Amino acid sequence: MKYQLFIRHTFCAVIIFLQFSCSDKNFTSREDIVTPKPTEKLAKLNGKNLEELQLGYQVFNANCVVCHNVRIPNTVNFPQWHAKIEDMANKAALSNDEESALQSYLEIFASR
């Protein structure tokens, strides 16, 4: 009798846990994740050109995110980004200006 009661309570606890852990409230969809946009203030703080940062932002969203699903640059540190960009720039057919702008953008937003 105690064993059956224990099983019922355990089963109920598992069901409740699964309901809350699998609910949409805890799920972050790809659309909810936003790549940070460069601002004039951020450009000045980092001694960067705002237009170059905006180009880097556009290149990141138009080229990198299309295949790699990485929407937040701080998921990788800058030395890792630098190596990835050098490796992928030719494959993505980036111009020198686009590659440079992407490097500048990711330098600011990459993890430290």
Strand content: under 5%
**Could you describe the largest sheet, including whether it forms a barrel?**
none
Oligomer: single chain
- Low-pLDDT runs of 5+ residues are 23-31
Our count of helices gives 5
**Mean residue pLDDT:** 79
Helical fraction equals 55-70%
Count of individual domains: 1
Q: How does the overall form come out from the CA principal axes?
A: elongated
Termini gap: 58 Å
Rg result: 22 Å
User: Pairing-aware structural class of the strands and helices?
Assistant: mainly alpha
Give me the strand/helix succession.
HHHHH
Number of strands: 0
Q: Would you write up a description of this structure?
A:
By secondary structure, this protein is mostly helical. The chain has one domain. 62% of the residues lie in helices and 0% in strands. It has helices at 2-21, 40-45, 50-68, 78-88, 96-109. Helix 3 (50-68) packs across helix 5 (96-109) and helix 4 (78-88) packs antiparallel against helix 5 (96-109). The longest helix has 20 residues, at 2-21. The chain is elongated and about 75 Å long. 12% of the residues are buried.
